[in-house]
């Protein structure tokens, strides 16, 4: 199989590690070789959390600048910050609901303009799928299921060698039963949102 390199970036508390764990479980069920690594940073203080997942044969868990086949950003500014991992063939999925950093909240920083952010990403990559995943998570019944919304969008692209059935089964194994119904609904809403993007 062709090697596929995925970067997931988020702010601490957004569920990046659970999303990575679900993808890892799905790859295990599908008997796909997978390498994973994570950078936690100051996750508990709202810092960046980055996961690198390499599907297929690979000698390293590190995804070098310009090598990502797909980038999923749970927060728009973090998506922009990870753009260096992309190339002209990369597919980018981003949530458009910002989580303002402390510096912006106290007036010492400026948050990037969302329209300019999207234009910049589009100019440097093959495709951008951008939507308000936080709104869809709320619609699914759990505001914390942004990660599952974005997993749905990710699987819809067809970039990874995983089916939606495999990921749904992995969600059943990896998420708490109390959240499963909302998470499955969030996955479907994300899948449909990505399908609606030109």
Query: What do we call the CATH homologous superfamily?
Result: Pyruvate-ferredoxin oxidoreductase, PFOR, domain III
CATH architecture: 3-Layer(aba) Sandwich
Mean pLDDT across every amino acid position: 92
- Strand percentage lies at 15-25%
CATH class: Alpha Beta
Number of strands: 6
| End-to-end separation | 27 Å
Question: What's the domain count?
Answer: 1
From the alpha-carbon coordinates, what is the Rg to the nearest angstrom?
Answer: 16 Å
The oligomeric state of the chains shown is: single chain
Largest sheet: 6 strands, mixed
CATH topology (level 3) name: Pyruvate-ferredoxin Oxidoreductase, domain 3
Strand order of the largest sheet: 2-3-1-4-5-6
Determine the structural class based on helices, strands and strand pairing.
alpha/beta
Q: Give the H and E element order.
A: EHEEEHEHHEHHHH
What are the segments in which pLDDT stays under 50 over at least 5 consecutive residues? none
Helix residue percentage: 40-55%
The coarse silhouette is: globular
User: Helix tally?
Assistant: 8
């Amino acid at each position: 199989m062709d090697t596929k390199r995925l970067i997931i970036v988020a702010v601490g508390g957004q569920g990046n590690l659970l999303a990575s764990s679900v993808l890892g479980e799905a790859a295990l069920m599908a008997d796909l070789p997978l390498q994973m690594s994570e950078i936690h940073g100051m996750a508990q203080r709202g810092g960046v959390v980055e996961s690198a997942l390499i599907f297929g044969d690979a000698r390293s868990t590190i995804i070098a600048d310009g090598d990502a086949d797909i980038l999923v950003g749970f927060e728009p500014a973090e998506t922009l910050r990870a753009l260096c991992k992309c190339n002209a063939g990369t597919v980018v999925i981003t949530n458009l609901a910002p989580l303002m950093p402390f510096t912006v909240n106290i007036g010492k920083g400026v948050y990037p303009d969302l329209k300019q952010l999207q234009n910049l990403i589009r100019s440097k990559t093959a495709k951008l799928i951008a939507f308000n995943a936080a709104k869809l998570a709320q619609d699914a019944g759990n505001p914390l299921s942004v990660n599952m919304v974005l997993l749905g969008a990710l699987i819809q692209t067809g970039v990874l060698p995983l089916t939606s059935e495999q990921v749904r089964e992995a969600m059943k194994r990896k998420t708490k039963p109390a959240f499963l119904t909302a998470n499955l609904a969030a996955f479907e809403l994300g899948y449909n949102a990505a399908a609606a993007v030109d």
